[in-house]
Known about the structure:
The complex is a heterodimer. The model of chain A has no long low-confidence stretch (mean pLDDT 93). In chain A, strands 2, 4, 5, 9, 10 and 11 form a 6-stranded mixed sheet that branches. Chain A contains no helices and 11 strands. By secondary structure, chain A is mainly beta. Chain A starts with a strand and ends with a strand. Helices cover 0% and strands 59% of the residues of chain A. In chain A, a hairpin with a 5-residue loop joins strand 9 (85-93) and strand 10 (99-101). Chain A has strands at residues 3-7, 10-14, 19-26, 30-38, 44-49, 56-58, 61-66, 71-76, 85-93, 99-101, 105-110. Helices cover 0% and strands 52% of the residues of chain B. Chain B contains no helices and 11 strands. Chain B has strands at residues 4-7, 10-13, 19-25, 31-38, 42-51, 54-57, 64-66, 76-78, 87-94, 102-104, 108-112. In chain B, the strands form 2 sheets. In chain B, strands 2, 4, 5, 6, 9, 10 and 11 form a 7-stranded mixed sheet that branches. Chain B has a 4-stranded antiparallel sheet with strand order 1-3-8-7, with no helix packed on it. In chain B, strand 5 and strand 6 form a beta hairpin. The interface between A and B is medium-sized, with 23 and 24 residues.
Amino acid sequence: EDKVVQSPLSLVVHEGDTVTLNCSYEVTNFRSLLWYKQEKKAPTFLFMLTSSGIEKKSGRLSSILDKKELFSILNITATQTGDSAIYLCAVDQTGANNLFFGTGTRLTVIP
Amino acid sequence: NAGVTQTPKFQVLKTGQSMTLQCAQDMNHEYMSWYRQDPGMGLRLIHYSVGAGITDQGEVPNGYNVSRSTTEDFPLRLLSAAPSQTSVYFCASRRGGSGNTIYFGEGSWLTVV
Lengths: 111, 113
C-alpha cells in the first residue's frame, strides 16, 4: 500500500531557530516529491524534487531528496512568524493523475 | 486570472440535507479532483476526473457524487450530509498527466450539524 509519512506531526519553535521537516515515502512508480505550504487557505507550491542529492533552495527554505532511502527533508533557517503553517509533502506517481499527500507537519513559530 | 474557483467558501448544513460544492477552472485542464482535509489526515482524494464525461473514485468517495459535463466544471454533491463530512474541501486541476503543476482552489469549509 502506498504511503507518505511526515514527521513530526507538529513543532513549536522560536523565531530564529532552524527546523527540519521530514517526509518518507513508499509508493509505486515514483516520479517526483513535492512540498507545499498551507496557511489558512489552499496549499501553495514550494518545491518539486525529482533527482537524488540535488538541493532546491528558495530564500531560507531548502529541500533535498534521497531516492535510495526514500525520504526528503525541508529545512527552514532563521524562522519567522510568517513561516507558521502546515507543510505538506506529496508524491507524484508516473501514470497517475493524483498527488498522494502525507498528513502534514504543523509548524508554529513563536516571536 | 481566475484559476480554480470554488463556491461557497463556508456552509453550515443540517444532517440529511443535500448540497453541491461548485468548482470551475478556466485553464482548460483535463484533470480535476476533489480532496478533503481533516486534522491530522492530510489531503485525501474523494473523486477525480480525467476529462469531460469521465469520473472515478478516489480514496474516500462514500457519501459524495460528482459529474463532469464540461471541461470547466466539476461539482461535488453531498446527497445526505452527515457530521462525518464536516471538513475542508479543496478542488484542484492540472493539465493531464503526472509531472504537471496542480492548482488548488481556495477551499470550502463545510460544517454538518
